[in-house]
Amino acid sequence: MKDxxxxxxxxxxxxxxxxxxxxxxxxxxILVPGRMIVTAAHVIHWKADGTMALSDSYVxxxxxxxxxxxxxxxxxxxxxxxxxxxGALNGMVSAEFxxxxxxxxxxxxxxxPIALETGEFELATPCPAYGSRTTRxxxx
Length: 140
Prior knowledge:
Layout (H helix, E strand, L loop, with lengths): L4 H14 E4 L4 E6 L3 E5 L19 E4 L5 E10 L4 E6 L6 H16 L30
């Protein structure tokens, strides 16, 4: 039987590369297929009063595994489940947004996104999960 440790190490490295941080909200997210970031809704700035759909721009800064800061915007927020999906800024708004969108797209081109499991999990059946470990007071 093959030793599974190298596979775990490879998967853990892929996940580590796909994790992003949101300094303002103090949380993390992960790059998923579709050039999107999934995170907790409480980590980002957003409003449920309709202004997000009516043109107000909500821009979030995130730090990627390359330690660079990127600007993204919420694409969807679900407050009951505490989930948010973010993506590239709308490059049609301004040259600054277009530049930020291009930077984010370039990041997505070099990092392997982490697929989300969409199937059902059997109760009490172990399954592998990868993420970053943090200790109280640490930023990573």
